[in-house]
Amino acid sequence: MKRRHLLHLLAGVPAITLLSACGKRKASATALKSDAHVLALGDSLTHGYGAPPDAAWPVKLGELTGWQVENAGVNGDTSEGALQRLPGLLSATSYDAILIGIGGNDMLRGVSATATRDNLVELITQARAHTPYVAVLATPAPDAMRAAVGSLSDAPFYEEVAKSQQALLVANVYSSVLSDSSLRSDRIHANARGYEKVAQLLADQLKAAGWR
Q1: Fewest Cβ atoms nearer than 10 Å: which of 14, 80, 135, 137?
Q2: 156-161 — which CB contacts under 8 Å span 24+ positions?
Q3: How far apart are CA 42 and CA 151, in angstroms?
Q4: Which is nearest to 203 in space by CA: 86, 38, 25?
Q5: What is the phi/psi pair of residue 166, to 5°?
Q6: CA geometry: angle 48, 53, 56, nearest 5 deg
Q7: How far is CA 169 from CA 15, 18, 199, 204, in A?
Q8: 3-state secondary structure (DSSP) of residue 164
Q9: What is the mean pLDDT of the segment spanning 159-181?
Q10: Is the pLDDT of residue 184 over 80?
């Protein structure tokens, strides 16, 4: 095929098709502004149970990124409790991004995976109506044996929900930290070093996703 004819054909092909044909990655999300206001919605792991208040991962994430990260973690909270709290938080303040880390207490209390999944879907739906920047932090399934040998893994429904709702999944952060006994304050909570590690891993994944 003559070069002139080939160029003529290519001129009519959408740019996205050409990028796909060349194996290019999709464009990442636009980075958040440097002083973005971020909501961290969660339970005791977000609150920072087991460490001083200034060691909680939302505080450390703010230090790493420059974002204003609001710690809306409540000790003992469930996905249902977070769902009850979220509308009030969203109506009171405008957030540039929302990080949702909830569900561990559901599993500890025997709440059905279906109920937790449904609550997470609604949390993401409400969050995405507020901002396109919504991430879900996966929590490990409680397993004393796997915790003892340092091999906790995320409960599988987080990936399912994040994919179905087109939310960013932050995977293997809590699992990896809580698998390391030197980073735990007790069986299910991190210590100050652990929360610092959570913040760093979280910041790394958000950077890879194009948030920063």
Answers
A1: 14
A2: 157/103, 157/113, 157/116, 157/117, 157/120, 158/103, 158/120, 160/117, 161/117, 161/120, 161/121, 161/124, 161/136
A3: 23
A4: 38
A5: 55, 40
A6: 40
A7: 28, 28, 15, 13
A8: helix
A9: 96
A10: yes
